[in-house]
Amino acid sequence: MDSGTEVTFAASNSSLESGGAAEPAAALHLLSRQPSRFKGVVPQPNGRWGAQIYDRHARVWLGTFSDQEIAARAYDVAAVRYRGCEAITNFPGERPSAGELAFLAAHSKSEIVDMLRKHTYAAELRHGLCRGRGMGARVQPTTPWAQKLLFEKVVTPSDVGKLSRLVVPKQHAEKHFPLKRSPENTTGNGVLLNFEDGEGKVWRFRYSYWNSSQSYVLTKGWSRFVREKGLRAGDTVAFSQPVYGQQDNNNQLFINYRKTPRKQDEAGHPDDAIAAEARSIKLFGVDIAGGGGREAGEKGTANSWET
DNA sequence: AGGTGTGTTGAA
DNA sequence: TCAACACACCTG
């Protein structure tokens, strides 16, 4: 499961509910859609929980969570961002701190929603509180010189294709990303790793070993990164770690990327992964066919607009 | 295949 | 505004 500090207003009292009979069993979810006792939280068919908030007649999806209490906190964060600190929340006792309010104010609604959906809100808030001191200054990315390069990889077509996973070269994986069965962050198989990108944004990927292909891979969360950055086969991704603090610094890592120069083809997003793949395979990074295919509205995760 | 998130509807 | 419900489509 995801760590307990997924989403939340600093505190964590909440004697509300969880105390008593903590779900006799998750067994009833097959046919009985037990409604959530939390505002903005809806049950998912598989027993998990979704969070959503409404903004001017439109639903804004805040992501899915394994625990309805965490989903409820995600809703609370969104509620404050969308409706102000007076908004009705699931945990009235846990009001956001001044710092968190500043953090929220410093980010657009869609940015906050993205963090919630990626389950990186808590991590980004920590950074914001740490770095962007004083008024809710925008989060400043960690300067490159504070990062120690671990390794780079030129992404393959399948790394940016519909497989939604990045194969981490075994040598680098075993050297830099030892896959331990550590207590926390362990999700069934694999672990959840946080990476800060060049903009100071945090990404969470599931990292695991696939027996079938005998390879180490970054899976869940990776496709979102590929999509947002518009990564194409031939581009390079670099993984680094903090040069100072112990690498145990909240096991915070960095991920950066570099586009390979292409013929006057701006950073088109590969909406059509298949076409992008075929093109890249043949041309070996040298692109001719212009259209990266962005034009039409982005699909999937395009949501919420700004005030 | 399983899970996520949207379409949609009716109630608050 | 909001959640129940169904299910198309995406991801892992």
TrEMBL record:
<dbReference type="GO" id="GO:0003700">
    <property type="term" value="F:DNA-binding transcription factor activity"/>
</dbReference>
<dbReference type="GO" id="GO:0003677">
    <property type="term" value="F:DNA binding"/>
</dbReference>
<dbReference type="InterPro" id="IPR044800">
    <property type="entry name" value="LEC2-like"/>
</dbReference>
<dbReference type="InterPro" id="IPR001471">
    <property type="entry name" value="AP2/ERF_dom"/>
</dbReference>
<feature type="domain" description="TF-B3">
    <location>
        <begin position="151"/>
        <end position="261"/>
    </location>
</feature>
<dbReference type="InterPro" id="IPR016177">
    <property type="entry name" value="DNA-bd_dom_sf"/>
</dbReference>
<dbReference type="InterPro" id="IPR036955">
    <property type="entry name" value="AP2/ERF_dom_sf"/>
</dbReference>
<protein>
    <recommendedName>
        <fullName>AP2/ERF and B3 domain-containing protein</fullName>
    </recommendedName>
</protein>
<keyword id="KW-0539">Nucleus</keyword>
<feature type="domain" description="AP2/ERF">
    <location>
        <begin position="37"/>
        <end position="92"/>
    </location>
</feature>
<keyword id="KW-0238">DNA-binding</keyword>
<keyword id="KW-0804">Transcription</keyword>
<dbReference type="Pfam" id="PF02362">
    <property type="entry name" value="B3"/>
</dbReference>
<keyword id="KW-0805">Transcription regulation</keyword>
<dbReference type="InterPro" id="IPR003340">
    <property type="entry name" value="B3_DNA-bd"/>
</dbReference>
<dbReference type="GO" id="GO:0005634">
    <property type="term" value="C:nucleus"/>
</dbReference>
<dbReference type="InterPro" id="IPR015300">
    <property type="entry name" value="DNA-bd_pseudobarrel_sf"/>
</dbReference>
